[in-house]
Specification:
Layout: E1 16-19, E2 33-39, E3 44-50, E4 60-63, E5 68-70, H1 78-103, H2 109-124
Antiparallel strand pairs: 1-2, 1-5, 2-3, 3-4
Helix pairs in contact: 1-2
């Protein structure tokens, strides 16, 4: 993310940041939430508060300023992101199935909407 406009002076110690697509660092940090602990001559040193992988929690890594986004943005854990994607896929499949049943006249539109609501609640629990 070279040329993002962020410089070392864009950050202060204690700032909450999100790692976005590290340009020259391992990609396993992508999406991690952290806190700025020191600022070097070229890089920002960040303690991983909630890393993409739990095994990296507490680790300090250094990043170019353009690799960081202010604030904690998005869902940091890869496992949580995968679960969200699977849930969205299940919801979409259930919705499609109900829509086919409505079109075929097997169930009414009202019944279909009730089934969609029940399915969505089921996936949230």
């Amino acid at each position: 993310m070279f040329g993002s406009g962020k410089t070392l002076s864009s950050f202060t110690i204690g700032d909450k940041v999100t790692v976005r697509g590290p340009s020259d660092r391992p990609s396993y940090h992508n999406g991690s939430h952290g806190t700025v602990v020191t600022i070097g001559t070229k890089r920002v040193h960040v303690r991983m508060d909630k890393a993409a992988f739990e095994s990296h929690d507490g680790e300090v890594a250094n990043f170019l300023p353009g690799d960081l986004e202010p604030g904690h943005v998005g869902i940091p854990r890869n496992w949580d992101r995968m679960n969200d994607a699977i849930t969205a896929m299940k919801l979409g499949t259930g919705t499609d199935l109900v829509d086919v049943a409505i079109e075929a006249g097997v169930i009414t539109t009202e019944q279909g909407e009730q089934m969609k609501a029940v399915w969505a609640r089921h996936l949230q629990s």
